[in-house]
Specification:
The protein is α/β, with parallel strands linked by helices and about 900 residues long. It has 5 domains: about 10-80, Ubiquitin-like (UB roll) (Roll); about 130-275, Alpha-Beta Plaits (2-Layer Sandwich), CATH 3.30.70; about 300-355 and about 550-740, 3-Layer(aba) Sandwich (Rossmann fold); about 360-530, 3-Layer(aba) Sandwich (Dimethylsulfoxide Reductase, domain 2); about 785-895, Barwin-like endoglucanases (Beta Barrel). Helices cover about 30% and strands about 15% of the residues.
Length: about 900
């Protein structure tokens, strides 16, 4: 057992004294003693049921079901007497008797089959006739009704862990069985394919089709532990393989963040690994066509092209876009390559497009660029303020944990223009007009001060800037904020009171805060709320938590893949910071900040950028004002692209290098609450594909430079010498401990999970309140473009969809929808399910209309997962004034319906 921190209960099990947490069950005590009991209705992630009677023990002389009986202090528990074994065996035999013989077939990996083998119950005990049928409608979940024992584990998993409530038990008596709650086929139900029901089913009644059938996180063959490469939650996963291919991806029961849970992407969306569209050989452009080439040819051409660019325009004529999909070690190596080999700070990563305002805003407010607390702390909050985020879809494991906390009594305030996800369960749902966040946050702060809900002692001793903020907030009373944001003043006041009166409030936010013209102002104004409440760096609250969109958005920036900072966020303009890096690297570091991603494209269009290396990003699909991005790539003399597939960006490249995916790499990721975790290769990359780490080394070698740190472990160790904040982090330590947060300067001490308990990391050691005025967004609707478009994510897909559209996820979510309000659909003659053309001042896209009241009147929403629809041709060049993060959340558009025609699986017209 792990070390317990709370009260303990001591009991004796078969003569062995064990201690379990107070309130634990006898089953937990039995397991603590190293004894296994059958427990077919029990899963330690769920509330106990006590329905199967297979875990019977004797406690102080009384026979009881161990799973539902609390461990009483001093209790004496017996498990091994003959009569108890007979009772347990009889209970299992009764259950098995109603099942068909295949339930116990040789080689069946189910929990029930293993229990029967341990009790010497043979296949002949299964005498059921079967015939109840099944459901094969879902790509990832197969239902065999004949194997259902009505234990209810799947129903409780869906309700208690996932929070979707998609399953129920139907029928009576021996006919009771699981079914989708909506009736009809499983694929048409509310199921979000988290895999929890598959993982908990003890019989195989609910199973993953194919080679992963019957495998669960509780009982599995040997597997490779790694960290999910989709969103920034950082789920620990166990990857089961056979003959060099992935058989199943299972959530780790001891995962520090996911705790035995997963989502449809991490659990099931690995079909892209074996897609026939995977790139396996380098491609070189010859006579306008991309043609296969050898690695030696390709690396040689990259090296020659980079040298030619430097010769023609100097080091600043070269730029690189690194990737949140790459490991920390790869991002470290890319920025080192640009600074050491090329001699420029022109390196950036895709956090520029999502959370660069978080880095700037959190650093200005508190001193460091990460979230202030662990998610475990956030989950203990008694009031959750969730702003500009839809974690139920974009971060499903976090969304499920937040929902679980709300259902158990925490007050929930959601601020989001759309009525989706957590908003359905909120005590107060604030629906501000897109682009009015700063006014909304100032309105909440106004109420905190006006109603004496601020922590005066904290503000006096640990914060600065209150007089300036208080003066500004005089201009943001609830009525004026209501006029600006559209949020009723009564709702604003109610939300402020919930947050202001909570004993342990927490603040969680997403891209709805950052992706604006004034995104950094939004982050700082939001941080004001935590500072006013004294809810950061204290035990009176759980601070501010940004939800990172991609798996390594935090780490890519931590590693210095940014134009103005080195690893650990030391500024390139600081001589001391440069000197420390120079001492490790042995060469001068450029002192002038480099180009950000938008600046790279502008320089390319102007003829000033002569070589661009894009690593793992489909910038033609994901960057705003996509027509101008394409023009930049076509103008740049050399474009190199590392990719899994021939993406739209790769189609515009001169050299395409086939890259390894996250399931084929070695290294680390940093998740949204600053935890370093290991990434391990479960399978080899296909054909000649290589990890970006090896590719960067090869190009450096071809240019005559040895970058050192030949292994990912060596790269992280070297990073710790450049950035002391990471000095205590090594692969060996992570292999032993699992997850370690930064700051971690000492290998002998734990990392800082909760920040700022003693002082803030600002120059004066105080939290800094900000007083930016509300300024309007970059675009406003008018008669020509009367609607406001917000873009974001949906539950089944990830970013440009290059991985999730190559597998069963496309069956679950096959079409790129435009969500609009029924009133707007009527006004613009748009039919539900019909093709629509969406036009902005910048471009045109084609989508499929979906009408619902989730979207407010005057607003429309679409995702970014289907590049063929052209969504980012619509978005504008407007960007955050501090960080250049694009304003994806506010684009003025118009919509026109078209005659309904057939569509293909990708949402394009036939």
């Amino acid at each position: 057992m792990g070390r317990m921190t709370g009260p303990e209960t001591v009991v004796e099990v078969d003569g062995t004294v064990v201690a379990v947490p107070e309130g634990a069950s006898l089953l937990a005590a039995v397991r603590a003693a190293g004894i296994e009991l059958p427990s077919l209705c029990s899963d330690d992630r769920l509330s106990p049921a006590g329905s199967c009677r297979t875990c019977l023990v004797r406690a102080d002389g009384r026979v009881a079901a161990a799973c539902v009986t609390p461990a009483a202090p001093g209790a004496r528990v017996e498990t091994a007497t003959d009569d108890l074994r007979r009772l347990r065996r009889d209970a299992v035999e009764v259950i098995v008797s109603a099942l068909p013989s295949r339930a116990l077939a040789t080689g069946n990996p189910s929990e029930l089959a293993r229990v029967c083998r341990s009790l010497d119950i043979g296949p002949e005990a299964a005498r059921g006739a079967g015939g109840r049928g099944g459901d094969d409608s879902h790509p990832y979940v197969h239902l065999d009704r004949d194997l259902c024992i009505a234990c209810g584990r799947c129903v409780r998993m869906c309700a208690e862990v996932q929070g979707t409530f998609a399953l129920t038990l139907v029928g009576r008596g021996a006919d009771t069985q699981v079914a989708p709650g909506t009736g009809g086929p499983w694929a048409e139900s509310d199921c979000v394919a988290c895999g929890g029901c598959v993982d908990t089913c003890p019989t195989g009644a609910i199973a993953e089709p194919g080679p992963g059938r019957g495998l669960t996180s509780a009982h599995r063959p040997s597997a490779t532990r790694t960290t999910c490469g989709y969103c920034g939650v950082g789920c620990a996963l166990d990857v089961v393989t056979r003959d060099g291919e992935v058989t199943a991806v299972l959530p780790a029961r001891d995962g520090p963040v996911n705790q035995g849970h997963a989502c449809v992407k991490g659990r099931f969306a690995h079909g892209y690994l074996t897609s026939p569209e995977r790139l396996t050989r380098p491609l070189l452009r010859r006579d306008g066509r991309l043609e296969p080439a050898s690695w030696d040819q390709a690396i040689g051409e990259v090296a020659r092209g980079l040298r030619a660019a430097v010769a023609a325009g100097g080091p600043d004529a070269v730029a690189a876009i690194s990737s949140a999909r790459a490991t920390n070690e790869e991002n470290y190596l890319v920025q080192k390559f640009m600074r050491v080999v090329v001699g420029t700070n022109n390196v950036d990563n895709c956090s520029r497009l999502c959370h660069s305002p978080s880095a700037a805003g959190l650093t200005a407010s508190f001193g460091l660029s990460g979230g202030t607390d662990t998610f475990d702390d956030v989950e203990r909050s008694d009031c959750l303020l969730v702003v500009g985020a839809n974690p139920v879809e974009a971060h499903p494991v976090v969304g499920a944990r937040l929902l679980r906390r709300a259902l158990r009594g925490a007050r929930l305030v959601v601020a989001d223009p759309r009525a989706v996800g957590l908003a359905r369960h909120a005590d107060v749902h604030l629906r501000p007009r897109p682009g009015t966040n700063v006014a909304l946050f100032h309105g909440l702060a106004h109420v905190l001060l006006a109603e004496d809900l601020a922590d005066e002692e904290f503000l006096r001793e640990r914060a600065t800037g209150l007089p300036e903020l208080a003066a500004l907030l005089d201009d943001y009373p609830p009525d004026r904020v209501a006029d600006i944001t559209g949020v009723p003043a009564t709702d604003l006041v109610a939300a402020a009171r919930l947050y202001g009166r909570a004993r342990r409030p927490a603040l969680v936010y997403g891209l709805g805060v950052t992706e604006h013209l004034h995104g950094t102002d939004g982050v700082r104004s939001l941080a004001n709320l935590a500072i006013l409440r004294g809810a950061v760096g204290t035990d009176r609250g759980h601070g501010v938590m940004p939800l990172r969109g991609q798996n390594n958005v935090q780490g890519a920036s931590d590693m210095g893949a940014l134009p103005d900072v080195l690893p650990g966020y030391g500024r390139v303009t600081d001589p001391a910071v440069r000197s420390r890096a120079e001492a490790v690297w042995g060469v001068p570091v450029p002192e002038r900040p480099g180009l950000r991603i938008p600046g790279m494209f502008a320089a390319a269009r102007a003829g000033e950028l002569r070589a661009l290396w894009v690593i793992g990003e489909d910038v033609c699909a994901t960057d705003p004002d996509a027509n101008q991005v394409t023009r930049a790539l076509d103008t740049c003399p050399l474009v190199v692209c590392d990719e899994l597939f021939l993406s739209e960006t790769a189609r515009h490249a001169d050299i395409v290098l086939p890259a390894a995916s996250w399931l084929e790499k070695d290294g680390t990721f940093v998740n949204f609450d600053r935890r370093f975790q290991r990434v391990r290769p479960a399978v080899p990359p296909p054909g000649g594909a290589r990890a970006d780490f090896a590719i960067v080394h090869a190009v450096a070698s071809a240019m005559g430079t040895d970058l050192g740190c030949p292994t990912p472990a060596g790269a992280l160790a070297e990073c710790g010498r450049v950035a002391p904040v990471f000095a205590g982090l090594t692969h060996g330590r992570l292999d032993r401990e699992g997850a370690v947060p930064w700051p971690c300067p000492d290998p002998g001490r734990p990392g800082e999970a909760k920040l700022y308990e003693e002082r803030f990391a600002t120059a004066d050691g105080r939290a800094h309140l900000a007083a930016p005025p509300y300024l309007p967004p970059g675009e406003q609707p008018d008669d020509d473009y009367p609607l406001l478009l917000v873009t974001g994510r949906r539950w089944a897909h990830y970013n440009s969809g290059s991985m999730t559209r190559r597998g069963g996820n496309l069956t679950l979510d096959p079409v790129d929808f435009l969500d609009l309000h029924p009133g707007d659909a009527l006004r613009y003659a748009v039919d539900d399910g019909a093709p629509v053309t969406v036009e902005s001042r910048h471009g045109r896209a084609r989508l499929i209309a979906r009408i619902s009241e989730q979207t407010a009147p005057g607003q429309v929403f679409c995702a970014i997962h289907f590049p063929g629809s052209g969504v980012n041709r619509l978005t504008s060049h407007h960007a955050d004034t501090v960080t250049s993060c694009p304003e994806y959340k506010v684009t003025a558009v118009r919509v026109s319906g078209q005659p309904r025609r057939g569509t293909t699986a990708t949402g394009q017209w036939e």
